[in-house]
Amino acid sequence: MPDASMSPVIVNPERNESLERNESTVTLLRELVAHLRQNRTQLREEWARRITEAKLLTAMSADEVFAEATAVYDNYLEALETGSIEALEAYARNLSERIIPRGVETVDEVVGIRTSIC
Fold it and tell me: What pTM did the predictor assign?
């Protein structure tokens, strides 16, 4: 798995900007990623519960919601580790393509997922 120290820069391609990672930022990111990995099971279950309680992704079964919560979680971790959001953006596009035909309204429900799990 990639390590935050391998990527000296955080890049935001939409704004064409970068932010140098200093030692304290790298240390903090490592600690955050370690915490998120250590609590992965509990946090994914909480995300899935919040999505279900908020009645988001109602076109999906409970197992599918949990699988998507897992994928989102893992993609966010990768983004934190690498400083790149490309994989996360690709996942979001793929998710939209898969769920729109099932009657999920992207703007309301996918944005709702993001706010409910943050």
Answer: 0.63
